[in-house]
Specification:
single chain, alpha/beta, Rossmann fold, Pantoate--beta-alanine Ligase, Chain: A,domain 2, three-stranded antiparallel β-sheet, 11 helices, globular, binds adenosine monophosphate
Length: 282
């Protein structure tokens, strides 16, 4: 089945309006393309909850704080459309950058959740770019729900906050992280790893598990983290940006494991030219 691709905001609004006239509920899955099984899991989840699934494919320039990261972001629309044709996707929204940010664009959304933590400390302006584009996608599509992956847990956290704060009539649905059999979280960026780096990459997830096992056994997070980070960086391939245990409810830093806090361990590290992030519940 070929899927129609809406390029303009009026086109996607028409598609959604028709679905709603027919009494259908609409689910949105925002993506930046480079589609993989993680994205498909979000799409299937949206399909299990809604009658009509819109997948947006838009590499949002305003959320990249490094120009080369934006320029090297893997994308192949023909390939993505082929992947989507095998899923329950009903429509695709793939606008151009000028459709989303026409000349004179001057408004942005900022979520201030307190101190700059995790990715917010390392990617200045990233979450403002995310908050702005998802707000626009919510308003452009008028979807009833939107699915976001736990892989980008801080993004999920921020998007939930913005929907609550701006009274956007849309429900955010979290979806668990999809992994390769060796533990590596699926990511469009994995395609940029060399074959040798790809073999090393699952160590990121192993470091998270080491911390999780140790804190569950009663060890203090700072000690468990120091050991895991030393192990991960021992052969000078990984450069850790952060490795921390925080509450999944509040993102506050934690030193001791207590189930009440819904603890999670978060990591970001550079492996060669590729920045990888991951997190797990403890
Ligand atoms: P991206 O295209 O990387 O911006 O991701 C689009 C959506 O897919 C976001 O909500 C991500 O959190 C989600 N996602 C990316 N990778 C995974 C994964 N491995 N498992 C589940 N969801 C994912």
């Amino acid at each position: 089945m070929t899927i129609d691709v809406a390029r303009s905001i009026p086109e996607i609004r028409n598609i959604v309006a028709k679905a709603k006239q027919d009494g259908q509920t609409v689910g949105l899955v925002p993506t930046m393309g480079g589609l993989h099984a993680g994205h498909i899991s979000l799409i299937e989840h949206a399909g299990s909850l809604c009658d009509h699934v819109v997948v947006s494919v838009f590499v949002n320039p305003t959320q990249f704080n490094r120009k080369e990261d934006f320029e090297n972001y893997p994308g192949n629309e023909a390939e993505d459309l082929k992947v989507l044709s095998g899923t329950c996707t009903n429509s695709v929204f793939a606008p151009s950058a000028t459709e989303v940010y026409p000349e004179g664009f001057a408004t942005s959304v900022t979520v201030s959740t307190g101190d700059k933590i995790l990715c917010d400390a390392h990617r200045p302006g990233h979450f403002d770019g995310v908050a702005t584009v998802v707000t626009k996608l919510f308003l452009q599509t008028g979807a009833d729900i939107a699915c976001f992956g736990e892989k980008d847990y801080q993004q999920l956290f921020i998007v939930k906050r913005l929907v609550a704060d701006l009274n956007i009539p849309l429900r955010i649905e979290p979806v668990p992280t999809v992994r390769e059999t060796d533990g590596l979280a699926l990511s469009s960026r994995n395609a940029r790893l060399t074959p040798e780096e790809r073999l090393l990459a699952p160590r990121l997830h192993r470091a998270l598990e080491q911390v999780a096992d140790a804190v569950r056994g009663g060890e203090a997070a700072s000690l468990a983290i120091a050991k895991a980070q030393t192990w991960l960086e021992s052969d000078n391939r990984f450069d850790v940006e952060y490795l921390e245990m925080r509450s999944g409810k509040t993102l506050e830093i934690l030193e001791r494991h207590d189930e009440q806090d819904e603890p999670r361990v978060f990591i970001a590290a550079n492996l060669g030219k590729v920045r990888l992030i991951d997190n797990i519940g403890v």
